[in-house]
Amino acid sequence: MHDVESRRELDLKSKDHLLGFGECFSSRLVTEALCHSGIDAAHVDARACIITDARHGQATPVRDATEHRLQETVGALLTRGKVPVLGGFIASTSDGVPTTLGRGGSDFSAAIVGAALCAARVEIWTDVDGVMTTDPKLCSEARVIRKMSFEEASEMAHLGAKVLHPATLAPAMRENIPVYVLNSRAPEGEGTEIVARAKSGSVVSAITAKRNVAAVEIQSGHAIDSEFLRAVYAAFDRHVCPVDVMATSLGRMSLLVGSTASLPAIAADLRGVADVRWENHQALVCLVGENIRRHPGVASQVFAAVADMDVRVVCQGASDRNISFLVQESKVEESVRRLHGVFFPPAERAHDWGGLSSAFCQAG
């Protein structure tokens, strides 16, 4: 890291290299602890197995190369009866340059390995009892969802649920491998089972909230056409700024992004093409459920619950699985609590009839 010190600059490439040290150390530590306990464990450097592109900070795995490496190394260890231990989150390019999979990428690593080895199941151990109807830090009435579909869980992860990395489920979905989200502090719990098809019995499965969202307005003097869209998305892609929601009208694009750090550079890139403005400290609140868009009553209930919350944007997702709206970040907790009370009301307690049976009451 002498280069970083001499240049006095920490770019994404150097940052990936630095961030990998903790994961490498902890995985070696776990391997030694397992061996000390009598388990035949073997350390595997994930950077030698999970191959990605060179998009530092949030690299994308190269499927064929990764599967080949994992089958060659991890698969061979399993055949010999050993327990392989890999660090999550870290990877490398085909040239061996360290990369990372982005925040929460350890779950993604587990799914990648499970899919490559055709595992019977993938388990994600975390600090909550499973995937919940909302963030329990926002609403104390949150409940565990016992079973849900890959599509619902993916939608939740993309729209702010922190229990899963947004890309985690893609490898498992491809190989139809069930994923279990379990609590490491309560290992006896059932957790949440995520499978190809699941019916929860309710229209709304969960309510998510994505904080630190910026509402971006891109104004053009001309109609929005394919060339303009290409220029805009190229600028966002160059600066690694994913777009969460997009809407267009005559000469204007409205975008929601999860990071404001790159917006000044994007605005500079698009100068002369479009005028870019944005508003910080916003939050995207989403209701997720199978075919939620086909139930118009849900939208009216949402409007009634948050009518006084200065809702800025309402969007029904193209996937038919979410309805979302934008509020000021300071109003997230209140809006989530209200909506949770509407769609997940507390169960009514049975009436105390003083010991009289229902049959006696009816007879009387």
Describe the protein's topology.
Blueprint: H1 2-7, H2 12-36, E1 41-44, H3 63-79, E2 83-86, E3 90-92, E4 98-100, H4 105-116, E5 122-126, E6 147-149, H5 150-158, H6 169-175, E7 179-183, E8 192-195, E9 206-219, H7 226-238, E10 243-249, E11 252-257, H8 263-269, E12 275-288, H9 296-305, E13 314-316, E14 322-328, H10 332-343, H11 358-363
Parallel strand pairs: 1-2, 5-7, 6-8
Antiparallel strand pairs: 3-4, 7-8, 9-11, 9-12, 10-11, 12-14, 13-14
Helix pairs in contact: 3-4, 4-6
Description:
It is a single chain. The longest helix is centred in the N-terminal third of the chain and has 25 residues, at 12-36. The protein has two domains: 12-195, Carbamate kinase (3-Layer(aba) Sandwich), CATH 3.40.1160.10; 206-343, 2-Layer Sandwich (VC0802-like). The chain is 34% helix and 23% strand. It starts with a helix and ends with a helix. With 364 residues, the chain is α+β, with helices and mostly antiparallel strands.
